[in-house]
Amino acid sequence: MINLETPKKHRALIDQAHQVAMNMLRPISRKYDRAEHEYPKELDMLAAMIDGLSESGASEGAGATGVRRDEKEEKAGVKNGANLASVLSVAEMCWGDTGLLLSMPRQGLGNSAIASVANDEQLKRFAGTWASMAITEPSMGSDSAALTTTAVKDGDEYVLNGEKIFVTSGERSDSVVVWASLDKSLGRAAIKSFVVKKGTPGLKVERLEHKLGIRASDTAVITFTDCRVPAENLLGNPEIDVKQGFAGAMATFDNTRPLVAAMAVGCARAALDLTRELLAEAGIEVDYDKPANLQHAAAARFLQLESDWEMGRLLTMQAAWMADNRKPNSLEASMAKAKAGRVGSDVTLSCVELAGSVGYSETELLEKWSRDSKILDIFEGTQQIQQLIIARRVLGLSSAELK
Amino acid sequence: MSSRESRDPIGLAVLALNKLAQSELIDRIGLRKQTERGVFTATRSGFKVAGAASRAFTRGGKVGADGVRVPSANPSGIFDLTPGEDEQMLVDVVKEFATEVVRPAAAEANESCTAPDEVLAASLEIGLPILGVPEKLGGISEERSAMAGTLVAEALAEGDMGLAVAALAPGAVATALSLWGTDEQQTTYLPEFTGDSVPVAALALTEPTVLFDVLSPSTKAVKDGSDLVLNGVKSLVPRGADAELFIVGAQLDGKNVLVLVESGTEGVQVEGDPAMGVRAASLAKVTLTDVRVPASAVLGATDGTTYVECVRLSRLAWCALAIGTGQAVLDYVKTYVNEREAFGEPISHRQAVAFMVADIATELQGMRLLTYRAASRAAQGKDFSREVALARKACTDHGMRIGLDGVQLLGGHGFVKEHPVERWYRDLRAIGLVEGGVLV
């Protein structure tokens, strides 16, 4: 039966996440926006609490590792599982603060990557680590075929060499999932991911970036110089399967894109909630029955923003629901990311405009959210990359045909 | 003409020339090929005729007593995008009908502003008008059918929006009677809808006013003894000329109400109101001049609550139509851009083209989810005012964008009637401005 309401079983979790966002993240939101690169020590206690929740099962499997698709036999029928719980709780946390959510210990995108592609032994071995994700290079972003970091097998180790940028939580994490090529002549199929522990000789955090938004989150440049990694730290299958190509590494993205979409949904909702209140104080309230053009222009605009936002939210829930029910969701994950990403920017920027100088000033968080939201339309695949993926899927075109 | 324009001497000369060009003299001496015929009233405005002679509805039932109601749908609380089994079966049937019967008839129906009899007859066979009528009263609805109605409207509009509106118009009235009718109203009218000869009927809410606010209709109902006297004009009423029964939106004692008006009632006049699109629905303007109906003809509550619920359910149906037509656009341009070649390769190989298709697909799915959410809330008896407003906004803006890009992607070929995208462009402009006509 079609029903798009938030599942009953997840409501307690979401309420909890909301309380955390409101009482823990919001009060320190501006502090760490200003104190860029300072470690938000408040998060340690929070992370411990989240670990506790997840051990007790109260978290419904939500979190960075909630994206794993178990192959275990499951009971029949429609499921609302860890993927949906994860996007819903991530959205709540980002309603609090996106930068802080990204800084949550042991909840890194690297953890999602491990959960997505690790075998059972690896999953066990890397449990409890805080893993950041290192893909981008100084001269390579969306075009992963241009990746230059190499991994050369030497005995029972791989030797990594290369430079990675834009590593979220790159300084604070205790391991890094690195994308490197086993053989550049074989293209994307040879790209594998490796878990590299901090402290491994040859791994060096070079510097931290100064950014437009999500300033609470550290973004690092990391170099690998003859960095030796145990062979069993290669995630997934070490064979180079030219036929399967890039699918292995890319599978991570089907799982993490809905999470990033959820971040945009949460961040944008923060802006909508506050703007609704500010407009009401100014005497403007949205009437859902009256035609938009017969209302104040600000109300009509708000209605459009809320409508677009809700589209992004439902597309995100759809992608997560499909993952929970083991339906291939690459198309829907990209739709969610594309829509939520652009809506995140439109909503947060429009809310600043609607609130005028109050929105632009640092006294409110509106201006901050409109800076934070921008990255969500960029990382884990830019808007344009999502459009490419969607178009290829919808039109049935290969990457050689639609470049 | 805008009143800010004025004619100078050359303008006046041109005007005279234009009058001459329009005169029948030229036609009589054969200077112009005669192409226009005064055939269907539906293709022109300006010819007012009396409303269709309505059948004698057999009065029965208890005045003022509650009618039969179906319970709300009660899903398990699980987030789910899978239609129920019955819903899926229904959708499969309607989809086939839309593909095999509706789409092939669409172009001609658009030209003639008339839905072909065979299409309408087939729509009755499928049971469209009784989808929202309780099983107890001869219909097929066991619980609130807003979701099923939404899926059906979507599937039909994938064939053609105009024909979908024509086919769904009687069902809108039957569903409204099922939702809000008294025992008397249901006993009097519903047997006709569940019988062999289903009457044409229409829900008339729109008025020909700029910045029309459906929540303050200028059509007024005034009490006169045990009667109500109605005055006002309703526009864009589907199949208005053939309709035997109208549900008219009006203001009574400062509150908005729905009033049942049989077309044969004195003072009901109908004229064609052809529009930019949705033409197969034979849109008409209905003028009510001192139309007298019994006070018991009010459908539902007199405090405005039924009226506003009706408005919302009607908007929901239009959202469903937008999704169906949007899907038609997407499927059509997908094939076209993959086949059409320029500069030595299919135009779909260019990002400028491919990204437009990607956006159509993304926004369309977003519109669909918003609409489904509103529909499932309506079916569950939950407040859906916010959800339907958001869906309507999305379907209005993004739906029109889809229509616009559909034509653009075909270039000049999109502008000519050889391809259906220009029709979908015209149809999609209806979303967000038409009130009434359809309802789920």
> How are the strands of the largest sheet of chain A arranged?
2-3-7-6
Terminal CA distance of chain B:
38 Å
Number of domains of chain A: 3
Subunit organisation of the chains: heterodimer
What top-tier CATH class of the domain at 307-428 in chain B fits best?
Answer: Mainly Alpha
Low-confidence stretches of chain A: none
CATH class of the largest domain in chain A: Mainly Alpha
CATH architecture of the domain at 307-428 in chain B: Up-down Bundle
How many helices of chain B in DSSP terms? 12
Distance between the termini of chain A: 40 Å
Listing every helix as H and every strand as E from the N terminus to the C terminus, the arrangement of chain B reads HHEHHHHHEEEEEEEEHEEHHHH
Short description:
The complex is a heterodimer of chains A (403) and B (440). With 403 residues, chain A is an alpha+beta fold. Helix content of chain A is 47%, strand content 13%.
